[in-house]
Design brief:
The chain has 348 residues and is mainly α. It has 13 helices and no strands. Helix 8 packs parallel to helix 12.
Length: 348
């Protein structure tokens, strides 16, 4: 199918945005000196007695809640409401599949993605502020032993800290899933289909990637999944049991990455403000990644696979940032034997 002038122009812009993203260094919220002080304080808190219990609770909560949280979040987005919005705009789509037959300009107009994007980001900021308050108090107890001279008894215990961190993980994962699921529906994809759940996780992984090498790896994974979905690869081994294990492993890695992105939330005083700001930025990055990923996939499908994203350069040799670790969804899929078999043209 021939792309319209608008669609061709947006395709070119998407490729330029991707290249610019890989060329751009990760922005830091705080100056170098402030980050060093926060890192030192955070390390002191993490070495305090009982800190290992916090970490264990953080990861355990994510593994246990991963499937429930992501499923609940994606199911709170109404397919009927999205289709009805298109009908009110004068487009009878007959369902989600019909949306992908429309011009991208029409879809972009109905999606009004910025409202979804910033609404979720603000929710994340509020969540980060609340959990950071509890985490901050607990770390002062563990690392300093007093809060504003009131004594250790005035601070929440290690269990409160662990609970706040676990709640923050669950809420951030739910918000990230929901903002991606919302975007998927507006571009004609059902996030509740098993293979679409995998794509949702891949988009979240891209949004979580901040360093150049991690972003390059995430773009490559997303491109591979896009090609599999565009070519209707048979996901025959992706049953409910396997998908549950994949989501749990993804959630556990998400939980490992989140503290690195939100270092300021692990230290006293500055933690509340920094935690709220970083929560906002993380969900905003996920929202931007979702919009770009689904628009690119939309156009690749519309071109019958003739369009392909620009090759992702190998940044593996680049000096990685301290938080430059990818989630590695393709590795999880391969280890769970869930990837579709290769197409004949893909084998020697």
């Amino acid at each position: 199918m021939t792309l319209s002038a608008y669609e061709q122009r947006e395709w070119d812009r998407l490729q330029k945005r991707k290249e610019a993203s890989l060329d751009k260094q990760a922005r830091n919220l705080l100056p170098r000196q402030a980050r060093d002080r926060l890192a030192a304080l955070g390390q002191k808190a993490r070495n305090a007695p009982g800190a290992d219990k916090v970490v264990a609770a953080y990861g355990g909560a994510a593994r246990g809640l991963g499937k429930a949280v992501s499923g609940t979040a994606s199911r709170t987005v109404s397919k009927k409401r999205v289709v009805e919005q298109y009908r009110r705009a004068g487009h009878e789509t007959g369902g989600l599949g019909g949306i992908r037959e429309l011009d991208l300009e029409v879809v972009d107009e109905v999606a009004r993605h910025n409202a979804v994007r910033y609404g979720h980001a603000l929710s994340a900021a509020a969540t980060g502020l609340g959990s950071a308050a509890a985490v901050t108090g607990g770390e002062v107890l563990a690392g300093v032993g007093t809060i504003a001279g009131a004594g250790a008894g005035a601070a929440p215990g290690i269990g409160t800290v662990a609970g706040a961190m676990a709640a923050d993980t669950a809420m951030m994962l739910a918000l990230a899933t929901r903002v991606v699921a919302s975007t998927a529906l507006y571009y004609g994809y059902d996030p509740n289909d098993p293979e679409e759940e995998v794509f949702v996780m891949s988009v979240i992984a891209l949004g979580m990637s901040t360093g150049t090498s991690a972003k390059a790896a995430a773009y490559a994974e997303l491109s591979q999944l896009t090609q599999l979905l565009v070519r209707n690869a048979p996901w025959t081994k992706l049953n409910e049991k396997v998908l549950t294990r994949i989501v749990q492993r993804f959630a556990a890695k998400f939980a490992q990455q989140l503290p690195k992105k939100k270092l300021g939330q692990f230290v006293p005083v500055a933690g509340m403000a920094v935690g709220a700001g970083l929560s906002y930025l993380l969900i905003d990055r996920v929202a931007v990644s979702a919009r770009d990923a689904y628009r690119e996939r939309f156009l690749i499908e519309k071109s019958d696979g003739d369009l392909t994203g620009a090759p992702v350069p190998d940044h593996g040799a680049a000096d990685p940032a301290p938080d430059d670790d990818g989630i590695g969804l393709i590795t999880i899929l391969r280890e769970e034997d869930a990837l579709p078999p290769p197409f004949p043209s893909d084998t020697p």
